[in-house]
What we know:
Strand content of chain A: under 5%
Helix content of chain B: over 70%
Radius of gyration of chain A: 21 Å
Shape of chain B: globular
Oligomer: heterodimer
Structural class of chain A: mainly alpha
CATH class of chain A: Mainly Alpha
Structural class of chain B: mainly alpha
Number of strands of chain A: 4
Largest sheet of chain B: 2 strands, antiparallel
Radius of gyration of chain B: 19 Å
Number of domains of chain B: 1
Low-confidence stretches of chain A: none
Order of helices and strands of chain B: HHHHEEHHHHHHH
CATH architecture of chain A: Orthogonal Bundle
Strand order of the largest sheet of chain A: 1-4
Mean pLDDT of chain B: 86
Number of helices of chain A: 15
Amino acid sequence: MRIGDAKQTYEADEAIWTSSTQKFWFGLLLLILLLFPFMADSYLLYLGCLVGIAVISTTGLNILTGFTGLISLGQAGFMGVGAYTVAWLSLNTGLPFPVTLLLAGLVAAAVGILVGLPSLRVKGLYLAIATLAASVFLHFIFAEWESVTGGMGGLSLEPAHLFGLTFQSDFRMYFIIVPLAVLMVFAARNVLRTRVGRAFIAIRDRDISAEILGINLLRYKLMSFALSSFYAGVAGGLFAYFYRVVTPESFPLSMSIFYLAAVIVGGMGNLLGGILGAAFMTLVPEALKLLTAALTPFYPNAPVFMSPMLEIIFGALIVGFLIFEPHGLAEIWHRIRRFFRLWPFRN
Amino acid sequence: MDWLFFGEISLAGLAMGGLYALIALGFVMIYKATRVINFAIGEIMMFAAYLFLAFAGGMELSAWIALPLAVIGGSILGGVIEKTMIRPMLGESPISVVMVTIGIASILVGLVEFIWTADPQLLPNFLPREPVFIGPLYLAPKIAYGFLIGSALLIIYLLYFRFSRGGVALRATASDQAAAYSMGINVRRVFNLAWVFGSLAASLAGVLVAATGGLSPQFGIIGLSVLVVVIVGGLDSILGALVAGVFIGWLETVAGAYLGGEYRMPATFVVLAVILVIRPYGLFGTHEIERV
Lengths: 347, 292
């Protein structure tokens, strides 16, 4: 709790901007994000794009799992829906990217609503398994509906374009992905402080009590599914434009688990946590690659052990965070901030 | 329609289903006692199968020594997992506990790749090779003998549950933890035992399945089929695990034979989806009533 920060109205409590310091740091962050591509080399730029896509998808999953308490193992499937929508639209209609991305989100949201329908009847782990079933079906459709999805070979698409401008390089893609990520995180922040967001949180805390309070469970649960898969769809669409090839194997079950892990490692029910988690989980494999490259001169076998090490680290991160830091990276971040705010006192 | 072919496929499917039933039994045991959904069960099976490979192939022990050793190794693994990673999660939300087991699965896959590389392996053959005929129907010997060994353990388990002190303690803990505590049952030990015995069943099934189908770090995918089995049967029902195990094993094999391998998973997941909509607690599971 910050000293001298008593809130006297609900508006003040719900406000996004509580201090000018906060605005200053946020402005600085935006500036850094804007200048980053001009200073970074191609590898960093590539990482920046990957993190941006991961942030969008993780934020979506965070709305569903972290804020509404509905666990989903279908995030990769929804991303696949978005990616295939973008690929199909760009191959068959040549629409510019803002339209295709929007449609990708909407189609994914529609599929999300369909998948969320059982959520009134089944909850908790049963729901997780229902979404798992959905992702199995989606994978099956991606692989078998050849006239639309291109079967196992998948689809390759043209670069994103708008007003005759094509977005071929990572440099240009960065200027689509990162502003969109900022915008969508901001939108999520805004939704979560409205009536809808509070309904989500009430459902998470105790769905029966929420229903007694007059919250229409089916409506808000479906809304959460729709919102979450909209984010996944947009992220999937960006994924399609970024790699420019979409195959059924681009969206395996392990990817759904990756996003769940990002939400957990970052901190469930915390948007900042989702961002930190997405960045962290995307960068860990890259850090391991760098480490392997550094070790190879001394241990020629190092590259062989990289992929198993990655699996072990991935699992250990999930288990370790859940046991020792259940509130995730966001909590660590808050602790660091608290330390500086209270310095030189300890608590 | 070729009835002979259908009969043979069905027979193979039913035998496979017997092994599913055994794995599902291990799964249900863990769930009943500790309320943990174990997503790592496929990986525990895989680990035991790799242990068998190391004992029988690497150290060239007789298969009949290697098999018990591998199964014991698998059950020790289960016990260690419970003690070190599941116990600290006691009282946390089910979502967190499930995620822990998913993390464990990933760690096990990594360990296996680390020790035995990611290449697919074949287990040394230890089951008799003469073809088995049931009436006019041919059954692959590996599947038939695997089924026999699996059902033997299954029957031992069922008798153990019913009649032994440990079995009674386990059932008591499952039905009411607080009451079990106050009757002097060491609930923590029951938790640990459930993981040990559950992993034991999974380990034996793991070696038997790997003996017929080969072994690779992707072997744990079978855990998804088991998940379907336990949801269809009811998470806390042993009878459900048996019935659904046999049924799902049969359905998977028949769908694979008639529609093609890519239909195996969707076919069983259709059943899963239907069950989730009609009877979310499974065919034989207990319908929990929630109160505020």
